[in-house]
Amino acid sequence: MNRQALDELKQQISLLDYVQAHDWRPIRRLSRDRLMGLCPLHADHQPSFLVDPSKSLFYCYGCGRGGDVIRFVELYHQVRFPEALALLQQWRGLPLLLRAAADFYGMQLHRHGEAVAYLYQRGVRSPELIEHMRIGYAPGGCLRGWLTQLGYPLRTLRQAGLVTGAGYDAYIHRIVFPLEANLYGRSLTPTAPPHRFLPGAKGGLYSWEQVQQCPEVILVEGLFDYAVLWQAGFHNVTCSMGNHLNVRQYRQLCDRPRTVYLAFDADTNGSGQRAAQSLACRLREQGINVRRVSLPDNHDPNSFFVQDGDARQFQSLLEAAQG
After folding, report:
1. Partners of 200 in beta bridges
2. Which residue in 134, 196, 245, 289 could disulfide with 249, CB within 3.0 to 4.6 Å?
3. 221 lies in the same domain as 300
4. Which residue range forms the structural domain that includes residue 98?
């Protein structure tokens, strides 16, 4: 990318918009419309992170780092310059395209009985929940035509990962969950890889803006775990989409004092509980109160509810959770 293209990219993406989209909140306003808040790049306890929207620059008086939006992406996501450019380009162009794809998948869900049956099998039965999570279905073979009719070039669809290099829909026979800047697809067929994301970052904690103010948060690994808990009335739940948190997800959990209940899978190989133990130690170092939920052997929250567990029983597990 040449200098002119770099300058155009920085002009198109506001540093303030980007940092606020990644959960930064200004605490006070200074002269010349500059903003000060806690630094998202280190464990900050008093406002030291300055953003100058007019110049699209930042500087932290605590850790001494500063620069433009590209430099912020490098530091925040801990990536190198080329990866930072790719993340910014994705963040700039994907939202409208992904929303159009998610809307299409949403229209397909109730047209395909196998998709509805699969959701029922996984305990997803509430229309309110389906609307809340904007759950859809990718039958395959028709997304490309829909999006090109809306004016999206085939090259753009390939770059986003929605269409393969050969021109076919990338998601086929998958339940689709829209994420912040990605799409998660869960395969209905046992022959295909079960989990699929589009290229790029999976983003922050799922639906974090709806639980950020909660003094107690339940963290689960998978979106189907999230679904059954939300459906059962536990609306203070969030999901990391795996048992290893990325940098942004970890920072989100540590952004204020709270209690975090780790309801990770009770796998036969112990991977879920080992990950919970490791995360619990890291969170406690940041002053977070952590409780580890002990699910029955070989269960995750989804299977717990599918196999006749209920909200009262899960509440008992939360109350029995150990520090």
Report:
1. none
2. 245
3. yes
4. 93-197
